Amino acid sequence: ELLDQSDIDALLSAVESGDVETDDASVRIFSKRRKIDLENAEIRPYDFRRPERVSKDHMRALQTLHENFARHFGASLSSFLRLIVEVKVANCEQMTYGEFVAGLPNPTSYSVLEGETFEGQICLEISPLIMYPIVDRLMGGTNEKLFIPPRPMTVIEERLVQKIIERAIGALREAWSSVTDFQLRLASMEANPQIVQLVAPNEVVVVVGFEIKLANRAGTVNLCIPYKVIEPMVDQLDAQSWFAMGRRREGRPYAGAIEEQLDRAVVEVEARLAETTITLRDLMGLAPGDLITTDKPANEPVVLCVRGKKKFLCHMGQHRGARAIRVVRPVGPHDRV
């Protein structure tokens, strides 16, 4: 006997009111295993509109990989801005591209990065809360009472932000070097993320969120990687192969990055002629023409100090009309200087 629409509606209303008994369908589990402990079985909801295409193991590998990126990026920004910058991973999750774009502010700094060694594009979003303090720092400001303007970036500000993005690209290449050759270039920059169609709105993307702290300012940076970019690299993200490659390259990326930063470091040096002590009365009575004597012989070398630490013995002289010192030898443990 066929049911018409009125019969179906009456049956559904009777089920909802409890007049009709129904079988408990929650205990029916379909599995390849023949015997399942229904009491201890873990049942988790699954939304077919948001399929999780990246496994948990691969998500953990991606998070660990981008923790390395955060360290490289923080060191690069600290050197560039001459200020301590802390970068750390805040979250790593997968969602649809439409959900990712819907959660972004407008305007913002939305940069599309194009792969040179792989097909596809990824995007890097920098929050205005941290973007404008960085721009202010590069232009000589102190970030005190800085107003965050609700407008797109000017041409000059875009040029400065490009310098930050170039360092982010370098840090990404360094972090991904243990997995694949991850070469990127900046394709475009937009203020409104809604007009950038990186992938279809229902496509799955992996979003890695970072928190950046800069003196008294803090903000977020989001890295969005579509699944179609990650899919060819899934085998390389496997834990065993990834850690095996990491052991083969152990120390090399970090040594190169540390050496590069140290080579450009500036240290203060000073040459000390002699040291002595005087009373406070003599100090207050000093006048032009007064002579201060020391116990150090005139023919003994002066001490070259690096940031206050005595490092070398030197001779004073002159070079092309300017004061100069010639290094004789390092300070030894038995030198009384």
Quick gist of this model?
The chain has 337 residues and is an alpha+beta fold.
Features:
single chain, 337 residues, alpha+beta, Chemotaxis protein chec, Surface presentation of antigens (SPOA), 2 domains, six-stranded antiparallel β-sheet, four-stranded antiparallel β-sheet, 10 strands, 32% helix, elongated
Describe it.
The chain has helices spanning 5-17, 56-81, 97-102, 128-138, 155-176, 227-230, 239-248, 252-263, 280-284; strands spanning 85-96, 109-115, 121-126, 184-190, 204-214, 217-226, 269-272, 302-306, 309-319, 322-330. Helix 2 (56-81) packs across helix 5. The chain has 337 residues and is α+β, with helices and mostly antiparallel strands. A hairpin with a 2-residue loop joins strand 8 and strand 9 (309-319). The chain has 2 domains: 56-263, CheC-like (Chemotaxis protein chec); 269-330, SpoA-like (Surface presentation of antigens (SPOA)). The strands form 2 sheets. It has a 6-stranded antiparallel β-sheet. A 4-stranded antiparallel β-sheet has the order 7-8-9-10, with no helix packed on it.
